[in-house]
Structure of Myosin-IB:
Amino acid sequence: MRWRLSSVARREYLELRQRRRMIEAVLVIERSYIQWKRRRYLNRLAIRLPSTSPTCREWPNVTLFLRDTNQILKKLYHVWRCHRYRIGFDQIGRNRMREKVTASLLFRNRKESYARSVAHPFQGDYVRLRQNSQWRKLVNETSDQYIVFADIVSKITRSSGRLVPVLFVVSTSSMMILDQRTLNIKYRVPAADIVRISLSPFLDDIAVFHVKSSSESSVLSPSFGNKWKGDLVLQTCHVIELVTKMFLVVQNAAGKAPEVNVHTDFEVSVGHQAVEFSFHCTGPTEVQPGHVRIVRRGYRLEVTL
């Protein structure tokens, strides 16, 4: 009887030991299999890495138990390629990228014409004013050596709404309207005196630059002396670029960013009078320059698209 009990106990002991060894073997095989899967995943990922472009959204799919690791590596890879993309820029490229980011913050989901400006690189000097000998002579007398923006734009007269083509220049310290032929300065407004920029949310190309009315912030005009003439209303096909560059120039000059107002109705100062600008969109078609109807009715200036 005692021998039988001993035999049963020994058999149970051997079965338990065998079961324990099987469990340990399963754990070893499982660990080895997981390590093999990880090594294979990393080796394949190293070969199949997507493009180094930050805009690329492709990424290899993996099995379920590697999903968390896959997401972490995806984020790390994206951060690395963004860093690599940024350090590849020189100072000029960084400034351009800063302008594009600023434009996105100012106009995305606010201005309908913003979308068409995304793919368009900001050139700044569209009339090659920097190479003009007359301009180089002129800047020796002023502090406007560095051109941020220069182009032929349409100045909207506040009295009748008529469009007048002018040469508009933005430097690091001011914005100016110049005579296209002689390059004589007609108006010059210090950048620190721009307090607000207003636009409509539609596809028009109109921007209003609100100027301080204090005596220290006068608009310089050879024909009108130092008389303050009010806010400046312009139309340009590069309105997103112009407002973005002006926003950064004012921020650097005044130490405070100007307010960017995107609304269908806002007030514009004409001398010491206030005129209400009102925008009306009659259809979904894209507005081309010259297709905007501007009518002055008393103290109201209506812009119909």
